[in-house]
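Async update (no meeting this week)

Hi team, since we skipped the sync, here's where things stand on the single-chain job. The sequence we agreed to prioritize is pasted below, unchanged from the tracker. I ran it this morning and attached the output directly underneath so nobody has to dig for it. Comments welcome in thread, and please keep replies under the output.
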Amino acid sequence: MACPICDKPTDPTYRPFCSRRCADIDLGKWLSGSYAIPTNSAEDDDDLAEALLDAAKDKPH
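Output:
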C-alpha cells in the first residue's frame, strides 16, 4: 500500500501514511476543509431550517 500523500511505501507506525509529516499534511487538509464534499448549500440550509422549525413545533413547552 502506498502513502496517499506522497506514494512512498507505508510505515506500520503511521499507517496508511509513510511518516508523521504525511499524516500531519493529511490532518491539515481535513482541518482546512480541503476534503469537504461539495453540496448545494442553499438547499441544505433550507432543509436544516425546516427541520429545526419542525423540531421546535413538536417539542413540548
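Quick observations from my side:
Helices lie at 20-32, 41-58.
The chain has one domain: 1-61.
Reply here if anything looks off.
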